[in-house]
Amino acid sequence: MKVNKLKMSLVTALWITCLCIFSSLKTADQRIGLNHTISIFKEGTAVFGQSLLDLQQAVSVVDGQDKQTIANARAALKRSRFAYKRIEFFMDYFFESSGMIYNRPAKVEVDEPYMEYQEPSGFQVIEALLFEDNPGGHRKALMEQAELLVSSAADLNSLLYGFDGTDEQILESVRLELVKVITLSITGYDAPELKTGVSEAFQSVDVIKNVLTPYLRPAESTDSKLCQSLSSTLAYLEVHTDFDQFDRMEFLTLYALPLQEKLGGFIRERGLEANYKSILNYKAGHIFSPDAIPAAAFNGIGAADLGTRKHSDQMKVALGERLFSEKTLSGNLKRSCISCHNPAKYFSDGLKTSVAFNEESFVKRNAPTLLYAGFQYAQFWDGRVKNLNEQIKEVIANPLEMNGDHKIVMAALKKSASYQSAFQQAFPEVADPLNMDNLAGALASYISTLSPRNSAFDRYISGDRSAMNTEQLNGFNLFMGKGQCGSCHFAPLFNGLIPPLYKRTEFEVLGTPANADFDHLLADQDSGRFGFFPISYYQGAFKTPTIRNIAQTAPYMHNGVFPDLEKVVEFYNQGGGAGLHLEVPGQTLSAKPLNLSKKEVQEIVAFMESLTDKLAAKLP
Amino acid sequence: MYRPNHITYKDCNKIFSILVPLVMLFSGIAIAQKKEKGAPAEPVKLIRGPYLQVASSSGIQIRWRTDLSARSQVRYGTSPAKLDQSVQDLKLVTEHELKIEGLKPLTKYYYSIGGLKDTLQGDEQNFFTTLPEPGKSGHYRIAAFGDCGDNSINQRQVKKEMLSYLGANELNAWILLGDNAYQDGTDAEYQTKFFNIYKDDLLKKYPLFPTPGNHDYHDTDLSAKYAQETHETAYYQNFSMPTKGESGGVPSHTQAFYSFDVGNIHFLSLDSYGKEDKAYRLYDTIGPQVQWIKKDLAANKNKGWVIAFWHHPPYTMGSHNSDQEEELVKIRENFIQVIERAGVDIVLNGHSHGYERSKLMQGHYGMENTFDPKKHNISNSSGRNDGSGNSAPYTKTVKKNNGTVYVVSGSAGKLGGKQTGYPHDAMYFSDADHGGACLLDVQDNRLELKWICADGVVRDQFTMIKE
Fold first, then answer.
1. Of B106, B119, B127, the residue nearest B62 (C-alpha)
2. Contact partners, residue A403, CB within 8 Å, separation at least 6
3. CB distance A22–B415 less than 8 Å?
4. Is the pLDDT confidence value at B204 over 50?
5. CA distance A100 to chain B (A)
6. Quick one: B183 and B65 in the same domain?
7. CA-to-CA distance for A212 and A220, rounded, in angstroms?
8. Does the pLDDT value for residue A294 go beyond 80?
9. B318 and B354 in one domain?
10. What are the residues facing B305 on neighbouring strands?
11. What are the phi and psi torsion angles at A411 (to 5°)?
12. Between 20 and 30 A from A592 (CA), which of A141, A188, B88, B195?
């Protein structure tokens, strides 16, 4: 009997062993988190689908006379948004196109290079309608939006047909979700009027934690630290839910950024790091680390990695720096890049618009700083070229700017033995490197190194808690929250690079006026991007520039109309041109006032002052 | 993750050595059995379709997709209460494709789909009508949807208003004018932006004849160039075409282009983006497609009406510019003479996201500024036939069969966009502000085309009569 018993248990044990061996053979490439993630998604779509039915019901009875119906609809929208946040990581990553209808900005997206565009739909359209003066008047539009969402969401599980995400992809999807939390959710990017961004951040982090479960090994210290970090971030978000009062700096420095570092480290340690989607450098600690957005993504050379680049790259930068003050590039041998982008003035010129080539008139637009200018996918205010190289060539040839004939410029440079040798060293692989492409390339290399990242803000974020004062910290919280500045001037460069992928540069229509007298505003006649690409949505649209070093580069806006930062912030505070009663049909900035107090305006300005870098003393 | 337990039993070496091979053997069998496919244990879910393909006067193909592999069965009959015939496929598949043959022409059949034991769908809303016999006159309705797949409110409204305009009438078929699932024509995009939108009505009731657009040729892994040459995109996976002349016409032996008859109307579905033999586009007239077109047109001169449809239009100033886009220029300069020589009555295109329609015209192959209504318009009537001034129907005779009406109808989903020079001078009527789709209503020798908009308004129409 004893033997039999032993036999039995042995057989059982062996059965299990063999089954395990077989199943591990059979599923040699089985993913650690695939099934778990799929089940999270399925749970999520069920809740989401139900929430949308509730939303549909709620908007169907919206009545302008009955405040309660509007409150109910807003509450239902909020619940739907929360439910969506639990599948957003998955939709955005694996099914971006199918997910587009749910939570895109309420703004027409143009499919360049064609005159094609996609009308906005989904939550943010519904939100805008529910916060209009009379939502009852929009019931039909609300119903259409709700029907679109309900019928689309009911089919979400069909997308799982043949779905086969790898662990690397799943982990990248949650990594990017965390970037969204840090850069978008807490800034009010996708719920500007509901102001639910902080509670939505909770949902996102909670689902990230859930997705990570099968990957976590409790015994490992990296893993348990990540776990703790997730839990404490969630605990913080659970308690601090008020959007306007939320202390973003505290949240970022004590919770979200450490969490991002731990998550990145964990994924790396597990050997599951992969970057299929974004331009981000996942080796960087967190999104505010200077190396998080690599200049290489823009074909540039960042200041941070200059030292590690090969010799010829360093020669390129040196050549570019030399060319930057080279007057031979201009038609009258009097002007250089410095004429309008003076390093002593933080690479701008302090004028409303720059002096033109004839030294009498002025060019059309304000000369922007070149600091961080390379970190954009569009150059010039209207984004008419895609990179610095093209921008440089155009400025040199432009009769109003440098009026340099490319052939004459090159012929002049070729006469110089030292330029011959400098080009040779910068472009050793080419036999005859003196040409316009290489000239632009060298200048672009130099300009792309103009990213010091040593401002008070940068020092604060990297640990020097004395670098910013209370006023500046309050300003940061307002900038990234109530002021809604950070929902267009995206972190970390506070420019138009759209998180979390950072693969596009945004344009906006602000209704910037021709004068600064808010009581007697005049419309500006500059059509902006429309002049380059004539689709009505681009009328008066301009690229979102960086606000780093902005305190040093007055005056402001594409036409230099505002003399100081207080005026700029006040302009936004009033709802831009449309808010100030200018006729701006396609304004993408909300025309509603931000209700910032004088003190708050001042604090935002103080924060922007903390973004001033210390530039190297040596001037070209 | 499973990790094999390494259990050692030092005292039981003997038993172990006997048992191990045995256990391995049994486990092996058990696993092998598990691997062998059988009817799925979980309930199978319908996730796509049913949709109707390769329709003819005697047969049809019904396709659907399930989440798990299962066997396929279609039961059918001429009354919803009596689905007394059936076809099966015993293969375990998720993409179900069943052909039914030996049907009567122009006859309404009800059907259900499912596995051998279960029914996934089948009620009085599941029906199809076989096509009329090729060449036979009658009263036929065919709808044309261009650039539809963007999962917009406009897409839903256009469909809704088309159905509401039809009322109790039914379509004999519907055709697609390309760009059927934005942005890249992936399978997921087809699911969300095409199949999910039309599943409850158009797809399950009316035979569909598609054509590809440029967005159906993106290949997100490789390149559009690769897709153009190989035709390996979701479009070709998702649709079945009558490539062997099943539905009339000369066999094309390719899914890229084909022809079919709806009674006395002969349709050609052409591919204006893909490449044949890795080299020839539609505008390369020495390529296989144009050679086939010539043969097919020659063989179908006896048909009452000939309609050609493809994606890229020869005349447009909507979201695309037919003077600037090389492929549009070349289609106009090189290709449409082939169509015009054969007296094709109507050309339907998409690509621009509006509606643009010419008068009865011929011979305009140059840029917009070379269009001369005196020279190129065969009729100066609007063709509206609605009692307004100069709106008499376009008339063609057997002897004088020349003249074509060009229609761009690319706003069944995507909407809007105008070039600076909008509208195109050759186009009598242009509207890029409303979404819509076209309805062809053909009664013997009289053809009407109506542009039915997303708000239910018919903003353009024309009539053509063959004497």
1. B127
2. A330, A331, A332, A357, A397
3. no
4. yes
5. 9
6. no
7. 14
8. yes
9. yes
10. B265
11. -60, -40
12. A141
What is the per-residue DSSP string for A581-610? T---TT--S--S-----HHHHHHHHHHHHT
**Tokens coding A300:** 């540039």
CATH no. for residue B103? 2.60.40.10
The CA distance from B23 to A11, in Å, is 7
Q: How far is A484 from chain B (nearest CA, A)?
A: 29
Mutate which of A10, A11, A14 to test chain B, going by most B C-beta atoms within 10 A? Answer: A14
Burial class of residue A119 (count of CB atoms within 10 Å of its CB; 0-12, 13-18, 19+): middle
Q: Cβ(A82)–Cβ(A102) under 8 Å?
A: no
Q: Are residues B201 and B225 in the same domain?
A: yes
Above 90 in pLDDT, residue A9?
no
Residue B308 has phi, psi (to 5 degrees) of -110, 140
- Its sign, for the CA torsion A502, A506, A512, A514, is positive
Q: Are B441 and B141 in contact (CB under 8 A)?
A: yes
Mean pLDDT of all residues belonging to chain A: 93
Q: Looking at the 3D structure of chain B, how many domains does it have?
A: 2
The reply to whether CATH 2.40.30.200 applies to domain A323-448 is no
Residues on chain A touching B24 (C-beta within 8 angstroms): 18
What is the ipTM score, two decimals?
Answer: 0.91
Residue B314, preceding peptide bond in cis (omega within 30° of 0): no
For B438-452, write each residue's pLDDT tens digit: 999 999 999 999 999
Optimal mutation site among B196, B203, B414, interface A, most CBs of chain A within 10 A: B196
Q: Are B433 and B416 in contact (CB under 8 A)?
A: yes
Q: What digits encode the pLDDT tens for the residues B361-403?
A: 999 999 999 999 999 999 999 999 999 999 999 999 988 899 9
Contact A115, B319 (CB under 8 A): yes
Domain boundaries, chain A: 1-30, 31-160, 323-448, 456-609
| pLDDT tens readout for residues A74-122 | 999 999 999 999 999 999 999 999 999 999 998 888 888 888 888 899 9
- CB of B12 less than 8 A from some CB of A: yes
Domain A456-609 has CATH 3.90.650.10: no
**Alpha carbons B311 and A356: distance in angstroms, whole number:** 48
Per the structure, the complete domain to which residue B70 belongs is given by 46-129
Phi-psi region of B351 (alpha: psi -120 to 50; beta: other; left: phi over 0): left
CB of A351 within 8 A of CB of A395? no
Scanning B247-371, the segments in alpha helix (DSSP H) are 288-299, 326-330, 336-341
pLDDT at A30: 80
Residues of B in contact with A22 (CB under 8 A): 27-28, 31
